[in-house]
Amino acid sequence: MGMFKVCSFNVNSIKARIDLVIKWLEKREKDIDVLCLQELKVRDENFPFQAFEELGYKCAVFGQKAYNGVAICAKDEMEAIRKGLGDEYWDRQKRVIAAKIKDINIVNVYAPHGDIRGEEKYFYKLKFYEKLVEYLDTHYRPDSPLIVVGDMNVARDDIDVYDPELLKDTIGTMPEEREAFNKLLDWGLIDAFRFLYPDKRQFTWWDYIGGKIWKDEGMRIDYILITPSLKDKLKNILVDLWPRRRRSPKPSDHAPLIGEFEL
């Protein structure tokens, strides 16, 4: 048995963040086995495959110019790579990619940011969550090993934001958004961080404006979700603040979330 580390990291442009990501992986001595990236903002052909290959990773990419985009980079062989939700309308925005690694299915998600209540993007976000549950229902089973990771753009509970009163009923905390996210969990997934740390306050995203990272005024909107068969194999889950507490190379507004499993 050995440790298997799966990471979710919204890089907010892989082109702008490649130096940071490579430096971070080298600093960690390349201990991440599966790196799931969101918000690539590049087409597939412009993804920096070579930089990852030089560190021993092969990458599957579902990219889009200037917006969205997801990738899975893994040390081990990837099988059953699936790009998108399988729906032409929903796959105009590149938000989901999946692969099977070490007999575990991994789904990487970049959920829509949404908008204020009643706007088009607000409804798009809620419908996206419905489509995501349908996608899981079509391709996977809750009783098989599955890890769903990504930037879900929802803070699940008040403990997941730095100021629940200030942020009440804003984007990411609206009851409808939380309900949509909880329906995803109801499909058969466990919030790995909250499972291990029921009362811990830990954020994954901080606004660039106002030095929020230094005040720890953030939100927990990035998740690693697991099916029950992986519950006993989950040994730790943590946020690595090193890439976020940078001035150079310029950081993403997210920090990597890492799940450690004993397989």
Description:
- The chain has 263 residues and is α+β, with helices and mostly antiparallel strands.
- It is built from six helices and 14 strands.
- The protein has a six-stranded mixed sheet. A six-stranded mixed sheet has the order 5-6-7-8-12-9.
- Helix 3 runs parallel beside helix 4.
- The mean pLDDT is 98.
List keywords for this structure.
6 helices, 263 residues, Deoxyribonuclease I, Chain A, six-stranded mixed sheet, 23% helix, alpha+beta, 14 strands
Present the secondary structure layout.
Layout: E1 3-10, H1 14-27, E2 34-38, H2 49-53, E3 58-62, E4 70-74, E5 79-83, E6 96-101, E7 104-110, H3 120-139, E8 146-151, H4 175-186, E9 190-191, H5 192-196, E10 205-206, H6 212-215, E11 218-219, E12 222-226, E13 234-239, E14 257-262
Parallel strand pairs: 1-2, 7-8
Antiparallel strand pairs: 1-14, 2-4, 3-4, 5-6, 6-7, 8-12, 9-12, 10-11, 13-14
General form: globular
Helix-residue proportion = 10-25%
CATH class descriptor:
Alpha Beta
**How many E strands?**
14
Separation, N- and C-terminal Cα atoms: 5 Å
Instruction: Please trace the helix and strand order, writing H or E for each element.
Output: EHEHEEEEEHEHEHEHEEEE
Q: State which percent range the strand residues make up.
A: 25-35%
Q: What does the average pLDDT come to?
A: 98
Q: State the domain count.
A: 1
Treating each run of at least 4 consecutive H or I residues as one helix, how many helices?
A: 6
CATH superfamily: Endonuclease/exonuclease/phosphatase
